[in-house]
Amino acid sequence: MTPREAAARALACLDLTNLDAACDAAAIEVLLGRARSPHGPVAAVCVWPAFVAQARRGLAGSGIRVATVVSFPAGTAPLSATLGETERALGDGADEIDMVVPWRRLAAGEPQAVTEEVAAVKALCGAAPLKAILETGELASPERIRAAADAALAGGADFLKTSTGKVPVNATPEAAAILLDAIAASGRAVGLKAAGGVRTTADAAVYLDLCDRRMGRGWATPERFRIGASSVLAALLATLDGADVAGADGGY
């Protein structure tokens, strides 16, 4: 896979993200403009729930999906609050929900908490894809990461997402490989989202190659693979323009 091929594939699978604490309506307008890149649209934008309606209006007719986050970033919100947040976001026009699972409870020996909360949110989402954020860098061990993946799959998650991007260790190829193995073992059509730490075209290519090797060359399409990032778009566009730069921030 050449750098340009990797950049084109990654661009089509990008969840272009702004989950900064200082994000405002003006920043969202900038994000929406960037989502329609000179080399084609990204897969989705991912924004705070407060900006879903603005993003929906701004992307009308573009084919770019609107994603938002719930129980973010800690994953400790009461389930009732997470369900309320999800219902409001869907009502505002969100196409996809990225939910932080209660990974601390799983780490404390309660994997059923992840399954139950994912199932409850998925029941609200209906056909809208639910991405379960596992916070793999905090779970740390392969055993816990796989347990979280299996618990989220049992709850009906449509994507397994590595990270929030708000902790010291976010997406890693090692964690992504564990999630892909869990997806393959499930027998379900579930996707992977690598989030946090993807800064360059070469970073993106690592995850695309991993998917190609483990799942088959045609698997990593926007329906089954996403990269959650903020500034990696600049690196991808530079590669497509014949240069290459590193993004300043890996995204969420």
Strand order of the largest sheet: 1-4-5-6-7-8-9-10
Approximately how much helix is present in the residues?
40-55%
**The CATH homology group name:** Aldolase class I
Integer average pLDDT: 95
What is the CATH level 1 assignment?
A: Alpha Beta
Largest sheet composition:
8 strands, parallel, barrel
Q: Tell me the structural class.
A: alpha/beta
- For this structure, the CATH topology is TIM Barrel
Contiguous uncertain segments of 5+ residues:
246-252
- Compute the number of helices: 11
What overall form do the CA principal axes indicate? Answer: globular
Give me some keywords for this one.
alpha/beta, globular, 252 residues, 8-stranded parallel β-barrel, TIM Barrel
Give a verbal description of the structure.
This protein is an alpha/beta fold. The protein has one domain (3-240): TIM Barrel. The chain is 46% helix and 16% strand. It is built from 11 helices and 10 strands. An 8-stranded parallel barrel has the order 1-4-5-6-7-8-9-10, surrounded by 8 helices. α10 links the parallel β9 and β10 (225-229). The chain is globular and about 50 Å long.
Summarize the structure.
The chain has 252 residues and is α/β, with parallel strands linked by helices. It has eleven helices and ten strands.
